[in-house]
Design a protein that fits this description.
Elements (H helix, E strand, L loop, with lengths): L11 H12 L3 H14 L1 H5 L2 H9 L8 H15 L5 H14 L19 H6 L6 H21 L1 H11 L4 H17 L1 H5 L3 H9 L1 H16 L6 H14 L2
Helix pairs in contact: 1-2, 1-4, 4-5, 5-6, 5-13, 6-8, 8-10, 8-13, 10-12
Length: 241
């Protein structure tokens, strides 16, 4: 199971690197930020809006750890759409980090023999007789739908137009269903993730929209199309107050 622990895995070195990025060479600002880090903790630094800008704009930011970069861009994207739950930011960042690795998005575990190419095939295995596998499949259904619809919305829309594939609403529904099923499984309570999956189910559309913003603004910033613009306008009207 993918653990929502990206923030917990950030190191002292990540904290110091973030502080230096925000300070931008100012010794007085560095002193203020170090006091903030000591008195308020790392979250105060990670939530500083200047950090995201620095990670995207400063050449020195290329030395940031992938965990730091991923968590910050996800956390700020979620906050921009009104989602302040740090646990959900951890979950979404963890999905990006794990699914960015080769073939991991199609396997419920890193070395699992079964490869899933569709959400429907995952849903079909959600009630399998092995309780551990059923739980992992359910969580993976939510994660996989979030990964596909969050990072590749234009690919989904293009397939819908060319081949009659499912639309983004289908992925939203399947992702929501996956997290709901995972939250309802007894292993979710045993592992302490029942509230996390329940919240992810309730807020799936907003999580997907935040990831769309990350995808549009960072990963595929140079891609422009009429369908992309229509999607952005539609989702802005729905998810931004």
């Amino acid at each position: 199971m993918i653990l929502a622990n990206v923030r917990q895995c950030l190191t002292r070195g990540d904290a110091q690197f973030a502080v230096r990025l925000i300070a931008r060479g100012s010794s007085s600002e560095l002193d203020v930020l170090e006091h903030t880090l000591r008195d308020e903790g790392l979250d105060a630094i990670l939530d500083d809006p200047r950090l995201r800008a620095a990670l995207l704009e400063q050449s020195h930011a290329a030395h940031a750890s992938i965990r730091l970069f991923t968590y910050v861009v996800v956390r700020h994207a979620l906050r921009e759409v009104g989602e302040g739950d740090r646990g959900l930011a951890d979950l979404v960042a963890a999905v990006l980090l794990h699914f960015g690795a080769r073939d991991r998005a199609r396997r419920i575990r890193e070395y699992d023999d079964q490869v899933y190419d569709t959400l429907a095939s995952l849903l079909a295995d959600a009630e399998c007789s092995d309780p551990t596998r059923a739980f992992l499949v359910r969580a993976h259904l939510g994660n996989y739908a979030l990964w596909l619809a969050g990072i590749f919305p234009d690919y989904i829309e293009a397939r819908r137009h060319r081949r009659g594939g499912p639309d983004l609403e289908y992925f939203d529904e399947m992702g929501r269903r996956g997290y709901e099923l995972a939250a309802a499984h007894r292993l979710a309570a045993q592992h302490g993730v029942q509230p996390l999956f329940a919240h992810a189910a309730e807020r799936f559309g907003r999580l997907r929209f935040a990831l769309n913003r990350v995808s549009d603004g960072i990963f595929f910033a140079r891609h422009h199309s009429a369908s992309k613009l229509m999607r952005q306008v539609r989702d802005e009207a729905r998810w931004v107050a």
